[in-house]
Structures are given as structure tokens and as C-alpha cells.
Design brief:
The chain is an alpha/beta fold. 36% of the residues lie in helices and 10% in strands. The N terminus is likely disordered. GO terms for molecular function: ABC-type transporter activity.
């Protein structure tokens, strides 16, 4: 029976070789991204939701004229997951619309947000900017779209008061970008939640100075209590809004004119030859001192003739100022790792266990297998048939040598190929 053993070993080697070739073929087939939605069958449930959403919109320019037929993934502004056909992107921003005093003109999309949008559970990109919603309020269900990563309601002409249930947006733990700019908001509500905002861009847009000051005051308290760092961008802040900040980065013409503590900013501009008069607030002074029209009135070196100090010269001089030199030195000095918490650094070779690494690699291979399941099933069936065929051939060869005239070979072959 040595021949049978050698045949089985050779069959196993053939099996492993074909399996390896199949895996190499699978490796070349990459899963496509969810945004490639061409020739994808649209989920019927999502298609009905979009049509219902369209009913509450006025479309004088025919921007949604492509929203017909069964394949909603090919509609304008719609993006689908290529595998599941579920809608993941809704972008109705019309660049042809004209912005007019916090509201777009009447030739653009207008109407109201239909609550049926809530049923698009897989939505992660929502852009409804430049749509005139007729001063309706932001609906409560927005916070239920838990998978949103991008949300844009700019120039949407919402109601002048931010509704209290806008706080539901803080439940969107995956949200990476939120744009509510250029809406006629006159009152604001403080938003609290599990997400930490590290950068806030022009939070004073559309708000009066009193409301902006209350928001900045709350942010300062949050920074000190939670021990976090926040960068807040303000356009022409009022003096009371400017004072609570610890550090300031002053930008002019795209250049950093000053970066450092607020208490040293007047010292820096005196170092440059300008001085803030007592009648002037610091916030107003730093906004005018780089202007070619206003700079001369702040020149205080009477023994020297006035010369205009350009923004580029301010940007280069801030590095030679003692605050800039200290900042440069701090950046050059390596961080003392002994000051960090012991658990902050990984002491092992890998940050996660071998079991977690195995599960991650296995899930990747499994995803590749599912993407080409037909090929994998075909290869498995092919290898199985060849394995069985080779095994039967070895067994019959051995029987034929033992009993050459018995006819067992023909009987077993006919039984294998013609079981009936």
C-alpha cells in the first residue's frame, strides 16, 4: 500500500498548491470603495425615502430632474455603497445659486426638510447648503443620523433662533465637520456632549457681541476644567471677547504676525515701533496696526521718521522677539518622557495582542474572499473533484495490480461517474 500513501501525499501537495494560487488571485481583487456607485442597484427603501424628500422641495431650475427611474444611485447628488446599494451620500449643493443677505434667491431649491430623511440610516455625508428652507427650524431628527461624518447647512436661511434640540448634534460621535455658517442666527445655545471640539472657526458669525462673549466664557471654563486645548478663530472680536484668551495667533494676509501670550502682544508691537494709545482697545489696535492706512497713527518713535512695516516684516520679526525665541527653543527641546504617565507609552513590541492582530488579518482575508466568492467556490469545487479523482485513481491502480483480471477497476469507475 505504499503507492496509496504516496498518491495521497501528492494529492495534498496539489491541494495546497491550488489553494495558494487561489489566494494569490484573491489578493489581486481589491474591494472597491462605497462611493463608486455606477451600475449599482438602489435599495428600494432608500429610493422611496428620496422621492418623499423631493416632494417637499421646490425645484425651479430642475436640479433634481434626474431623480426618476429605479436606479437612484445614478441620480444627481446621490452616492451609494457599491456592495449594498444603500444611500450614503446626499449632496444637493447647487453652485449656480446666488447668495443674497443670509438667504439664497428664489430660483434655487427651497422648501422644508421631510422627516423621512431619518430612514437613511447609512447616510454619512449630508450637504443641504444653499437651499432656502424658508426660515424653518433645524429638525430634531438630525441627531438620529448617527453615521454622519459631514453635515453642511450653510446659507440655508434657517430660523433666526437656534432651536434647543440642535444639541442632538452632539450625539453624532462620528461627525468630523459641521458647517452652520451664514445663517441669520441671532441667539445661540451652548452645546455640550461627549465630543471635544479642538478647532472652532468663526463662532461669532451672525451672533451679537453679548452672545459671543457668553460662548467664549463657557469655552474658557471648559478648557480649564477639562484640561484640553482649543483653537478658536474670531473675526474682528469685541474687546470683552478678546480678553479671556490666554494665547493669541494674529493672522494678516495669510501670515502669522504674532504668536504668544496675550499679555505680551503690546510689548511686541512696541518692539516693532508702534504703540496702542489709551483711548484704543487692544482688540481694535491689533486689527489696525498692520493696515497701511492706519499704521502711521500708532507710530511712537518720534526721533525716527515713520516707515511702513509690512506684514512680511512683522512675520520675520516675531521670530527674533523673545517670545518667538522661547517658542523656538521649546520646540527644539525634546519632551521629557519621565513626565508622562506610565500607561501613555507602549512598553511591548506591539500595541495590541497577537490575537487581535490575527483577528484583524483574518477579517481582511475574509473580506477579500467574500468579494470574489464565486471564484473561491469554483476553486474549492475544482480542487475537491481533482483530489477525489486522484485518490480513486490511486486506489484503483493498487487494486488492479493485486487482481489484474477481476474487473474491479471498471466497476468502481462506473460507480463513481455513473452512480445510478
Amino acid at each position: 500500500m505504499k503507492m496509496i500513501g504516496s498518491c495521497i501525499i501528492s494529492t495534498h501537495l496539489l491541494f495546497l498548491l491550488l489553494l495558494l494560487l487561489g489566494c494569490i488571485h484573491l489578493e489581486t481583487i481589491k474591494p472597491t470603495s462605497g462611493n463608486e456607485d455606477l451600475n449599482v442597484d438602489c435599495a428600494e427603501k432608500d429610493r422611496k425615502v428620496l422621492l418623499k424628500f423631493k416632494e417637499d422641495l421646490n425645484d425651479p431650475l430642475g436640479w433634481l430632474s434626474s431623480w426618476v427611474g429605479e436606479y437612484c444611485c445614478s441620480w444627481r447628488g446621490i452616492g451609494c455603497n457599491q456592495k449594498t446599494g444603500r444611500v450614503i451620500k446626499l449632496d444637493l449643493r447647487n453652485p449656480l445659486c446666488i447668495y443674497q443677505q443670509f438667504c439664497v434667491n428664489r430660483s434655487c431649491l427651497s422648501g422644508k426638510i421631510n422627516p423621512s430623511l431619518l430612514h437613511l440610516k447609512h447616510l454619512n455625508y449630508l450637504d443641504l447648503s444653499l437651499i432656502n428652507f424658508g426660515e424653518t427650524s433645524i429638525l430634531e431628527f438630525i441627531g438620529s443620523l448617527e453615521n454622519l461624518k459631514y453635515l453642511n447647512f450653510s446659507y440655508a436661511c434657517f430660523a433666526r433662533k437656534i432651536p434647543p434640540h440642535l444639541g442632538n448634534i452632539s450625539r453624532l460621535i462620528y461627525l468630523q465637520e459641521l458647517d452652520l455658517s451664514d445663517n441669520p442666527f441671532k441667539q445661540g445655545e451652548m452645546l455640550v456632549g461627549p465630543s471635544k471640539a479642538l478647532f472652532m472657526d468663526e463662532i461669532s458669525t451672525g451672533l451679537d457681541s453679548s452672545t459671543t462673549f457668553q460662548i467664549v466664557k463657557f469655552i474658557m471654563q471648559l478648557v480649564h476644567i477639562m484640561d484640553v486645548t482649543m483653537i478658536v478663530s474670531l473675526l474682528q472680536p469685541a474687546p470683552e471677547t478678546f480678553d479671556p484668551f490666554n494665547d493669541i495667533i494674529l493672522l494678516s494676509e495669510g501670515q502669522i504676525v504674532y504668536q504668544g501670550p496675550c499679555e505680551n502682544i503690546l510689548e511686541y508691537f512696541e518692539y516693532m515701533g508702534t504703540k496702542c494709545p489709551k483711548r484704543k482697545g487692544v482688540a481694535d489696535f491689533v486689527q489696525e496696526v498692520t493696515s497701511k492706512k492706519d499704521q502711521e497713527q500708532y507710530w511712537f518713535r518720534k526721533n525716527q521718521p515713520y516707515r511702513y512695516i509690512s506684514v512680511l516684516e512683522f512675520e520675520q520679526s516675531v521670530k527674533s522677539f523673545h517670545i518667538g525665541q522661547q517658542l523656538t527653543e521649546d520646540l527644539r527641546t525634546p519632551y521629557d518622557k519621565t513626565r508622562a504617565h506610565p500607561s501613555a507609552l507602549v512598553k511591548e513590541k506591539y500595541g495590541i495582542s497577537n490575537w487581535e492582530l490575527f483577528k484583524a488579518c483574518f477579517s481582511r482575508v475574509w473580506l477579500l474572499m467574500k468579494c470574489s466568492s464565486f471564484i473561491y467556490i469554483f476553486k474549492t469545487a475544482q480542487i475537491t473533484i481533482m483530489h477525489v479523482n486522484d485518490y480513486y485513481d490511486c486506489v484503483l491502480e493498487d487494486i488492479n495490480e493485486a487482481w489484474p483480471d477481476s474487473g474491479w477497476r471498471e466497476i468502481l469507475w462506473s460507480a463513481f461517474f455513473h452512480p445510478n
